[in-house]
Design a protein that fits this description.
Elements: H1 7-22, E1 30-34, E2 39-44, E3 51-59, H2 63-70, H3 76-79, E4 83-93, E5 96-103, E6 114-125, E7 128-135, E8 146-147, E9 149-150, E10 153-160, E11 163-173, E12 175-176, H4 183-206
InterPro entries: StAR-like, StarD4, START-like_dom_sf, START_lipid-bd_dom
GO molecular function, one term: cholesterol transfer activity
GO cellular component, one term: cytosol
């Protein structure tokens, strides 16, 4: 088990990595599966043997309120149908923490429940916000869970120029679920999970 990292350099490196992902040209992405809430693309990850996913959609609300629902805090567990528990293990400052959370089984439990320990950081980006995270090898794995690993992930949320009450939400997700799983099952789960994330979020913001 690794000790907790120094948060400042990790936060800076994480932000720079997400900004780099955000600048990847359209031609490098494949797929473009679309539903009424979001479009999801993917490309081979530079971090592991799976994919980096990009999801994008317009959400009808202001940037700060959207990000408050996504980042670690009281809202996330209420609406995210995949997340089954969340604990803040360490708070470095208001926008920076380490959290442990668990996710439900997926695909008729082909994918068993997972546990993650993530460093999370929220910062300004252009006229909006970026909330991002990366998994840490920290703490004992609880029984009945497989410990998954999030390579650099994050959500950019910026107000639309012509409609500031709407925001463009763009996510970059690369999750190594670990355990003995066929890659095709992981890919199916990731695309549908990201699409559901947007629809669940939109419902939560309207309540």
């Amino acid at each position: 088990m690794d000790p907790l990292p120094n948060p400042a350099p990790l936060a800076s490196k994480l932000r720079n990595t997400l900004v780099r992902y955000h600048s990847i040209g359209d031609g490098e992405w494949r797929g473009g599966e679309k539903n009424k809430d979001a479009t999801v693309w993917r490309k081979p990850s530079e971090e592991f043997s799976g994919y980096l996913y990009k999801a994008q959609g317009v959400v009808e609300d202001v940037t700060n309120r959207i990000v408050d629902h996504i980042r670690p805090g009281p809202y996330r567990l209420d609406w995210d149908s995949l997340m089954t528990s969340m604990d803040i293990l360490e708070t470095f400052e208001e926008n920076c923490c380490v959290m442990r959370y668990t996710t439900a089984g997926q695909l008729w439990n082909i994918i068993a429940p997972r546990e993650f320990v993530d460093f999370s950081y929220t910062t300004s980006y252009e006229a909006g916000l970026l909330t991002c995270g990366i998994s840490l090898d920290y703490g004992e794995v609880r029984p009945n869970f497989v410990r998954g690993f999030n390579h650099p992930c994050g959500w950019f949320c910026v107000p639309l120029k012509d409609s500031p009450s709407h925001s463009l939400l763009t996510g970059y997700i690369q999750t190594e679920l670990r355990g003995m799983l066929p890659q095709s099952a992981v890919d199916t789960a990731m695309s549908s999970t990201l699409a559901n994330f947007y629809s669940d979020l939109k419902k939560a913001l309207k309540t």
